[in-house]
Write the structure tokens for this entry.
Amino acid sequence: MKIAILSGKGGTGKTTITGNLATFLKNCTMIDTDVEEPNSHLFFSMENKKHEKVYGKVPEIDESKCILCGKCSEFCKYAALFNTKKSILIFEESCHSCLGCEIVCDYGAINFKNREIGEIISGRNKEMNILYGKLNIGELSGVKIINRLKKITEDEKLLLIDCPPGTSCSTVAAVSDCDFALVVAEPTPFGVSDLKMVVEMLKKLKTNFGVVINKAGLGNNEIYDYLLENKITLLEEIPFNEDVAKFYSQGKIFLEESEIYAEKFKNIYRKIEVLTNENK
């Protein structure tokens, strides 16, 4: 089973939920696809670390064949190519490696070279495999790293995916092809607004999902009314609690500090299994 854990914005608690759920499940694989600032691994010791460079393909112009027609720059929606009177300028950081510029070139003037955009670090904790991606500073898109992370782990029996926050291309790449999406939300007006965007995205992706309310008791009842009106499953509530904040600040998995929370994550996974089986 592939379970994506996501949220409408940063700081909601998706990494906290991912780490605790992984600890409860034990024999699983956890990947952090928030490649701009991965932090799931900080809560675990990792042994036998391995590093794998990730490359994107960027265009090179064969000036002996290029007639400066401008079709490639017109095609590129990311402004990675710019047509001047003397040459085609290439802005490598903007290139998304779609390779479309080669297709529209009628003169075979475009080739590609590899360009390093980041890396994947993998290792093992006592009871789980941990992988995370790191996007190089200055890069605009981490989708290729996310896709590589998912390719490496596509055969895992139980996979937890800590997704990037929001509803960007990176989040869509992380969530796609998952069996279930666990959405972490906080009970504030801002939290509800972000939750609505995530729900809309998941419905378009036709992904089965449920919601965990983190920091329960912090705001008002708006989020509960929204879930009820839209018939969205509430998987569990994690209270707004000083002890949880202390455990987090100390880099501890709070499930290991209290049987109450262990029971909550047991309940979360049980509900996920039920909802997943119902939609088969």
